[in-house]
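User: Can you recover a sequence for this backbone? Please restate the input before giving your answer.

Assistant: Of course. Working from this structure:
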């Protein structure tokens, strides 16, 4: 994805000779890369001379790039308006335009966020891709990150993404550290046991552009705007009909149809956009590095494993037996119990299968996105009422569970094989998945669903020629079901060899429908509902004149009420009854109210110096208030150079889900290493461990995350090289009190140093001499809070009287991150006799990335380590346009980094390895006839072909977990072809 920096500097106050609300807005066709149509609005000026001076300066500063910058489009429109008014001699004769637009990152109309670096993606940029996922547009930015909630990672980076939504993560600082907006408005919460914003709710045709502000913006927006803000700006006043179709082919097939229609009347406009997408999936085995058997990639054969010291092997369609410390195959007998001799003859000849042949990479997905907007002017066009709706519905289907079980077969089972072993039992491993195919098979897929509706009602009213009142009401509603569908019982398999032997025969191949209907016992559905009610009021206008222009002020207040409910229910997966009983595992609700007040001032102190001041106070009903200021400065020492800087404080409020243990909290028992050097005693001297109860999941009482950020940058357009623009931005963020799972909690008692470091999360709780295992009333009182909720306490209580401590891990305000880096954008355009050319470069270089794992812990450098933001991410594009033809070739680079994960292969610990850098090429070609310039067939026609990974390069091999590829930095799809068709009417 190639982007253009929006010019960041003070805008001169101007007047435009344009009409009221219902007349066409000034627009400008951007440069050769077709940035689409931009709408810009200006602010008043007193003298025509200042307007012309501004146009001359800005033409030298930015005009040569022709890259779709917002500032130039506005000023060019102003210049055209003045030129067409030949009869106007005085600036006072020019009619004032009603100022309605507010850029991302500021509450002041008609100005860019002073001092901040802002990137923009146009409508045509979005068309020149292989995807209709809005999250992918941001992920592919060098300033983006793959460290986000992803469909191919159902547990995500933070866990809980069982609904398969997708997040956005700028600079690798976290999904919820990037604020997502639709036309400057927030989205209702999404997710199941994790909460974040997924912007994949819009038809691509409804998006005018995407603005990305790479700066902390809590002083303007409140929570979440730490790494930056991503604002999807919707089309305004669209009239006509636009049809888009796209087909994408790689390891998966995806087809999408996107239609937008709009009409206008004297005092208003309305449009409706609809997108439908159908995307397929594929098995993980399509890529060998996603299989369990990773021997070809230097890893283990994970088809073989052990549980509690007992080995197991993933079976094929025929089961196998583990007896006498040996694996045996089972002959095909069509249901007859084999003899001991038949089984013993198959020693070591057991079947083996691979999870990659069973599990989908990501879900099949059908997605419907509907957006609409209706605008009506009133009161002689002094007022404007706009209703915007964004509805999305996503239905997914995925095979995600590994349906095989190793069960105990005892002598009283009808399937006991006499003479096979002298032991009282043996183990039989059976694949329910591979035997659930063909006639009589039971549907066992997971079908997550999501429905989301965001509705925005905006009223804008001009109180006079200077001041404007803005009111907004937002209503959001989200309904998500994750892991909806049948799931395998965890208790019934053993019963199949005894209690339900009449329904199940392990020596029969193929579906046994009555048994499968029982073992795929129904559902344990995880459902979540989010609701949001939000209202705001803002007054904005000029206050006095300064040497550089009119000072402007915006102030107002906001209120937001949010609610969340989580329900985990269904038939009990631990029951062996027939039929299994329905039960509610978890049912919890939470809510919060937030009130806020804000003020922002735009101060053009001099012709070359602009200052922006903003401050906002947010008061939360559940954890208190916070005040966050921001200062932005822009200075133009010469006509070709702009220097800029910002200093800001920002915060992220813990989500309702993160603060609610009722959604996810469990206490488990374990033995933690202990060298005996501190006050918590060793309970097992042979192994050097202490028996503890430890917590996982969410935590009541989480506090806000905080960040201090500053940036400094420049924009340079050398006069000697027409068409060249350079932008560079240095940033530094100190992000503390971060909400993360307590890291490495199993080492909390390892030595006295760790004991002191983890002390805030340790409760010393030895059991009394009168303790009776299983009788919670006899336990140390400190355990009572944890045993009262059955869903929270898991595992056998047989050894409970040996517990010595409680480790309060799970989500905590624990870590800190200090990150700094440099962003660089280069745009260069030039013309030749055969056409127009352009070069785009966008690079992000992380210079430092330190992290402290616990409060007060030492900051440790994490730069270029796996699992953290890569230090080098770059993209470049060469563009050519001639007539109706557009073509480009681009390159994307992800830098090298270290894989220092603790990996053991065949009992040998691997040394850290270096993952090589990865460069992929892409290409786009399009033929477009603007509306009104072609014949009946070609008029308004656009046909485009986009290719990612043109050379079909394989990603680097990176051993981590159960795979040999790093999803966060590389994709597995190989070459991706996408053909798009657009027709305008």
């Amino acid at each position: 994805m190639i982007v253009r920096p929006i010019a960041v500097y003070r805008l001169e106050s101007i007047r435009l000779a344009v009409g009221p609300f219902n007349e066409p807005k000034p627009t400008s066709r951007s440069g050769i890369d077709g940035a689409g149509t931009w709408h810009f609005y200006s602010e008043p000026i007193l003298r025509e001379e200042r307007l012309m001076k501004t146009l001359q300066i800005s033409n030298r500063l930015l005009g040569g790039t022709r890259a779709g910058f917002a500032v130039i489009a506005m000023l060019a429109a102003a210049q055209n308006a003045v030129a067409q008014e030949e009869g106007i001699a005085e600036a006072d004769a020019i009619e004032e335009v009603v100022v309605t637009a507010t850029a991302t990152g500021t509450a002041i109309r008609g100005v860019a966020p002073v001092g901040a670096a802002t990137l923009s993606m146009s409508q045509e940029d979005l068309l020149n891709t292989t995807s209709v996922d809005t999250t992918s547009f941001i992920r592919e930015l060098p300033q983006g990150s793959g460290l986000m909630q992803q469909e191919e990672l159902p547990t995500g980076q933070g866990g809980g993404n069982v609904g398969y939504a997708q997040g956005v993560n700028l600079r690798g600082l976290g999904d919820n550290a990037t604020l997502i907006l639709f036309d400057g408005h927030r989205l209702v919460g999404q997710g199941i046991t994790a909460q974040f914003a997924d912007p994949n709710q819009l038809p691509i045709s409804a998006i005018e552009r995407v603005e990305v502000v790479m700066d902390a913006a809590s002083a303007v927006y409140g929570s979440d705007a730490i790494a930056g803000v991503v604002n999807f700006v919707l089309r305004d006043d669209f009239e006509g009909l636009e049809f888009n179709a796209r087909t994408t082919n790689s390891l998966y097939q995806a087809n999408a149809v996107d239609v937008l229609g709009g009409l206008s009347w004297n005092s208003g406009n309305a449009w409706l956009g609809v997108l439908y997408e159908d995307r397929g999936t594929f098995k993980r085995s399509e890529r060998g590095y996603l299989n369990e058997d990773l021997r070809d990639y230097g890893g283990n054969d994970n088809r073989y494993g052990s549980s509690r010291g007992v080995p197991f092997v993933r079976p094929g369609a025929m089961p196998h037996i583990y007896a006498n410390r040996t694996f045996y195959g089972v002959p095909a007998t069509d249901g007859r119990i084999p003899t001991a001799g038949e089984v013993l003859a198959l020693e070591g000849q057991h079947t083996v299968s691979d999870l990659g042949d069973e599990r989908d990479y990501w879900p099949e997905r059908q997605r419907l996105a509907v957006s609409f907007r209706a605008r009506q002017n009133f009161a002689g066009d002094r007022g404007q009422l706009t209703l915007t709706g964004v509805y999305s519905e996503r239905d997914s289907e995925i095979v995600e569970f590994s349906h095989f079980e190793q069960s105990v077969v005892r002598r009283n089972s009808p399937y006991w094989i006499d003479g096979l072993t002298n032991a009282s039992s043996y183990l039989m491993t059976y694949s329910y998945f591979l035997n659930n195919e063909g006639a009589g098979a039971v549907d066992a897929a997971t079908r997550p669903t999501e429905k989301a509706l965001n509705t925005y009602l905006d009223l804008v009213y001009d109180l006079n020629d200077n001041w404007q009142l803005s009111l907004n009401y937002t209503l959001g509603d989200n309904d998500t079901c994750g892991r909806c569908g049948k799931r395998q019982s965890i208790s019934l398999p053993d019963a199949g060899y005894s209690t339900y032997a009449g329904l199940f025969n392990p020596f029969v191949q193929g579906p046994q429908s009555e048994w499968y209907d029982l073992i795929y016992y129904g559902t344990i559905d995880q459902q979540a509902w989010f609701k949001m009610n939000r209202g705001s009021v803002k007054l904005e206008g000029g206050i006095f004149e300064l040497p550089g222009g009119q000072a402007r002020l915006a102030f107002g207040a906001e209120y937001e009420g949010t609610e969340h409910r989580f329900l985990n229910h269904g038939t009990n997966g631990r029951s062996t009854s027939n039929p299994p009983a329905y039960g509610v595992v978890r049912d919890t609700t939470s809510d919060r109210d937030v009130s806020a007040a804000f003020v922002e001032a735009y101060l053009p102190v001099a012709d070359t110096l602009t200052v922006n001041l903003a401050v906002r106070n947010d008061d939360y009903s559940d954890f208190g208030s916070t005040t966050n200021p921001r200062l932005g400065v822009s200075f133009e020492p010469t006509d070709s150079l702009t220097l800029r800087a910002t200093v800001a404080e920002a915060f992220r409020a813990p989500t309702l889900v993160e603060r609610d243990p009722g959604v996810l909290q469990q206490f488990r028992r374990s033995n933690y290493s202990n060298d005996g050097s501190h006050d918590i005693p060793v309970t097992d001297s042979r192994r050097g461990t202490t028996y503890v109860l430890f917590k996982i999941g969410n935590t009541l009482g989480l506090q806000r995350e905080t960040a201090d950020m500053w940036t400094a940058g420049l924009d340079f357009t050398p006069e000697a090289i027409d068409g060249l623009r350079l932008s560079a931005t240095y940033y530094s963020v100190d992000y503390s009190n971060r909400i993360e799972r307590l890291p490495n909690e199993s080492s909390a008692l390892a030595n006295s140093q760790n004991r002191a470091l983890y002390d805030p999360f340790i409760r010393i709780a030895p059991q009394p001499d009168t303790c009776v295992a299983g009788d919670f009333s006899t336990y140390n009182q400190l355990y009572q809070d944890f045993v009262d909720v059955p869903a929270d306490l898991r595992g056998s209580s047989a050894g409970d009287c040996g517990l010595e401590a409680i480790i309060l891990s799970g989500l905590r305000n624990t870590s800190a991150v200090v990150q700094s880096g440099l962003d660089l954008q280069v745009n260069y355009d030039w013309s030749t006799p055969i056409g127009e050319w352009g070069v785009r470069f966008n690079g992000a270089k992380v210079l430092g990335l330190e992290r402290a794992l616990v409060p007060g812990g030492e900051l440790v450098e994490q730069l270029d380590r796996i699992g953290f933001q890569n230090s080098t991410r770059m993209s470049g594009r060469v563009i050519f346009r001639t007539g109706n033809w557009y073509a480009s070739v681009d390159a994307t680079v992800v830098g090298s980094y270290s894989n220092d994960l603790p990996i053991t292969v065949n009992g040998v610990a691997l040394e850290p390895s270096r993952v090589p850098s990865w460069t992929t090429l892409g290409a786009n070609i399009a033929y477009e006839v603007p509306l009104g310039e072609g014949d009946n067939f070609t008029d308004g026609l656009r046909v485009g072909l986009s290719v990612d990974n043109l050379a079909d390069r394989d990603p680097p091999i990176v051993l981590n977990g159960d795979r040999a590829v790093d999803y966060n930095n590389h994709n597995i799809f190989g070459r991706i072809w996408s053909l798009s068709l657009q027709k305008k009417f």
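That completes the design. The longest strand covers residues 520-546.
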